[in-house]
Design brief:
Layout lengths: L23 E8 L2 E8 L8 E6 L5 E5 L3 E6 L3 E8 L2 E6 L3 E5 L12 E6 L2 E5 L6 E8 L1 E5 L11 E5 L6 E8 L17 H10 L9 H13 L1 E2 L9 E2 L9 E2 L2 H9 L4 H9 L14 E2 L4 E2 L8 H11 L5 H21 L13 H4 L16 H20 L3 H22 L36 H12 L5 E2 L2 E2 L21 H13 L3 H18 L4 E2 L6 E2 L5 H15 L4
Antiparallel strand pairs: 1-2, 2-3, 3-8, 4-5, 5-6, 6-7, 7-14, 8-13, 9-10, 10-11, 11-14, 12-13, 15-16, 17-18, 18-19, 20-21, 22-23
Helix pairs in contact: 2-13, 3-4, 3-5, 3-13, 5-8, 6-8, 8-9, 11-12, 11-13, 12-13
Length: about 575
């Protein structure tokens, strides 16, 4: 057995145990009234991701987890769990270890679970996850199999490894799709041990103030462990949003992960930025989300890619002429798509078809019936047109640079004429231009990303709104709906909780508007909230409680960027 679990233990009830490149993840999940250890498979179109349930001689067990391994302790004995390779899990202990196929309540009848013994100490299992098969091998100890055959399958499969005469047992589980790779029980995978691999990875994660040192390690682990290999539809390594249930890449989440990785892992960062463009349609649209198996296109996501590209250029010398040349045409097509296919009334102001297109799924901006000419969309497109002008200039396309620069200025003028009332930005219906007075969403303040491009009076009004304590500015970050709004709800997705992307966009807007002290203040509130509550999908603005998925990569990435850029002394 290995030494005790090293520092930076995390809670496997919220944070999956995995490693870079793997589609396997170990989690505690509900099994009836119990929380049980499951080996899960996060491949995209697997309808049932729980593949095996782990038991230790029928005894309850406690779990400690760290990046290199998990340690399970029970009255029956102890077991260490580690990854020998991204597709190879190792269980080593001194008590019986049982892996049982998990039977979902509504199993697909065409997924026929069965087991084939391939030797005294090895077997192959087809479980309910039809994209992968599994080889289980007792490298030390004896292997017994319980798999009653009913003529076409074995609805229940349990494989148990029991200790040998020395009292030790080692069981390996390999996920494979063609044939097992690690058939020889003495084979040593030619990959770095997970502990060493993680430490090397962590060295490239942005530095942060000392008070956030432990939080930085956990953020780095979540990004590392949420990365999957380039397989099937994916031509690049992909940092999934999580290995809990958000097991895909959404077409704006990836931007924040790219920014966090830009300095220390520049090639992976570029892959994250470019990945959705691999799935761009002929008309120029990016997908809503992608994974190794599925491309979702019912929605899109906001065009923050011009802003992101500018920030990547500023943060990484690796974004050179070659990368700019590669992204120029895809970014151009994505920009033009908004004007060609989302400006139905022809007024030069594109619209969102649904809240999901904006990323603010149920935000009060969409109390207006779609399509909605939300001001943040026009602001993002102004920045995207400006970035196209900059890239065109780098590539020696002077005429295009002038053209995109002029279009950016025209769009800004239209936004101000169209949506600014003298007090606030409105989000009118595209066509009728009707508005709804109800709601007070932070989304309407995101044009602050334009900084000093905005007239001084407009900028001052927006800054006064976000600086007002108790309106959006809450103890744990900026609420997405004003706390005083009649539509504010404590746990309501985009009608109140603090989100990482809106926080970072607001901070960038504050900095661009010269409000550096407020940018630092907002960053500190957010970073301290996630340090206390974990990298949740969103957080309560008043209590700081984390909601839903607590191993969400864009939350980890935004923490790293804000803590590094705004809270670290000397920056």
């Amino acid at each position: 057995m290995a030494a005790s679990v090293p520092t930076m233990a995390f809670d496997p009830d919220h944070v999956p145990f995995s490693r870079r490149g793997s589609y396997l993840a170990c989690s505690l999940n509900a099994d009836g009234d119990d929380r049980r250890f499951f080996v899960r498979n996060v491949r995209g179109d697997v309808p049932h991701d729980r593949v095996f349930r782990l038991d230790l001689g029928g005894a309850p067990y406690a779990i400690e987890a760290a990046p290199a391994r998990m340690e399970l302790s029970s009255a029956a004995g102890d077991v260490d769990v580690s990854f020998e390779a991204p597709s190879l899990l190792r269980f080593e202990g001194d008590c019986p270890i049982t892996l049982s196929t998990y039977v979902p309540s509504e199993a697909d009848p065409y997924q026929r679970p069965y087991v084939v013994r391939t030797g005294e100490a090895a077997c192959r299992v087809n479980a309910y996850s039809h994209l992968s098969k599994y080889r289980l091998t007792a490298r030390e100890g004896d292997l017994t199999i319980e798999a009653p055959w009913n003529g076409q399958d074995s609805p229940h499969v349990s494989v148990t490894a029991t200790p040998d005469s020395n009292g030790t047992v080692t069981l390996t589980l390999e996920e494979y799709r063609d044939e097992p790779r690690w058939i020889d029980s003495d084979a040593t995978p030619d990959v770095a041990p997970p502990g060493a691999a993680f430490e090397r990875w962590l060295a490239g994660i942005p530095s942060v103030p000392q008070e956030f040192a432990d939080t930085r390690r956990l953020a780095g682990y979540i990004l590392w462990a949420s990365t999957v290999a380039a397989e099937r539809r994916l031509d690049r390594e992909a940092v999934y949003m999580s290995k809990n249930w958000m097991t895909s890449v959404w077409s704006w989440d990836h931007c924040f992960n790219a920014l966090a990785l830009a300095d220390g892992h520049p090639e992976l960062a570029w892959d994250q930025f470019a990945l959705p463009f691999d799935f761009q349609t002929e008309t120029g649209a990016l997908p809503d989300s992608v994974n190794d198996a599925v491309v979702e296109r019912n929605f899109v996501k906001p065009p923050i890619h011009g802003l992101t590209l500018r920030l990547l250029r500023e943060r990484s010398d690796a974004v050179g002429r070659g990368k700019l040349a590669a992204i120029y045409e895809p970014l151009t097509r994505w920009t033009e798509w908004w004007f060609d296919h989302r400006d139905h009334d022809g007024d030069g102001i594109p619209a969102y078809h649904h809240g999901n297109d904006s990323g603010w799924d149920n935000g009060t901006t969409f109390l207006v019936e779609p399509p909605v000419e939300a001001p943040d969309l026009a602001a993002f497109l102004v920045l995207q047109l400006e970035e196209l002008a900059t890239v065109a200039d780098h590539l020696g396309k002077a005429a295009a640079a002038d053209r995109y620069g002029d279009r950016a200025s025209t769009l800004l003028d239209r936004l101000l004429d169209h949506s600014w009332t003298g007090e606030r930005f409105l989000a009118p219906h595209s066509g009728t231009h009707e508005t709804v007075a109800a709601g007070d969403s932070l989304q309407s303040f995101l044009p602050l990303v334009l900084g000093d491009r905005l007239p001084a009076d407009v900028r001052e009004r927006l800054l006064a709104g976000v600086a007002e304590e108790g309106r959006f500015l809450a103890p744990h970050g900026p609420a997405t709906e004003a706390l005083s709004s009649s539509h504010y709800e404590q746990d309501s997705y985009w009608r109140g909780p603090v989100w990482a992307p809106s926080t970072m966009l607001l901070v960038e807007g504050l900095a661009a508007s010269g409000e550096h002290d407020l940018a630092i203040d907002v960053s500190r509130r957010f970073c301290r909230a996630v340090a206390e509550s974990g990298f949740a999908e969103n957080l309560d603005p008043e209590s700081g409680e984390g909601y839903r998925d607590r191993a969400y990569t864009w939350t980890a990435s935004v923490f790293l960027v804000l803590a590094h850029e705004y809270l670290q002394e000397g920056r």
